[in-house]
Amino acid sequence: MVLQRRPLVIAIYDSKWFMRVLDIVKRRGIIFHHYYTPTDVPYGSVVYTDIEAVSRDLSHRGDVLVVYDPEKSCRSLEKALLATMYVTGFKSILVGVDPGESISYVFLGDEILLLYGIGGVGDLIRDVEYVLSCMPFKELRVKIGSGSNSSDVIHAIKAKYRDLHVEVVDEYSTTPSKNRLEEATYLYKKLRGLKPFRYRDIYAAYRIALSKGVEVL
Fold first, then answer.
1. CATH top-level class for 8-83?
2. Is this structure's pTM higher than 0.90?
3. Residue closest to 162 by CA, chosen among 142, 176, 183
């Protein structure tokens, strides 16, 4: 679930950065509009742009927040994305990891789903790097389920980020089953409508992120 409360409008000239921004915005589950003219911008929008003329043309719109980013920085992009939720950062970002042959993981910002993925350790580290480099937060914790391949994931994370808080969580009762449909329905809303039995390991990763673990020193 994304607590988007303001429309996002994108106006980007640089084609490579445009494609990168689209990928990030879609992964975040944020609804957006393309920029056409100043009068087409919905009331109360956040406009993210690398075009000076767009920033200038919208200067008279007191209801619109323009994030002008000629440097094409992920931190400025995140400023715009967070502004759609009326927040400037997160108190806590929790990463839940369900290890196995394929790794499933979620990133929760103050319990709001930011990112999820299924892949290898490299995919997880790529997203950890993005969060560390681009998102404003006070605390980040990575919580890894105690299943198979957990030691490899822990080693990879600690080898690259020695000072990062990493915890091991007992995986018992983290994967949904058919006799917990009420709980699955609740999580369905939290996880942007991901189907619980198709994405059962993502559901497990979500539970792991919110569970208490034992810190790895």
1. alpha beta
2. no
3. 142
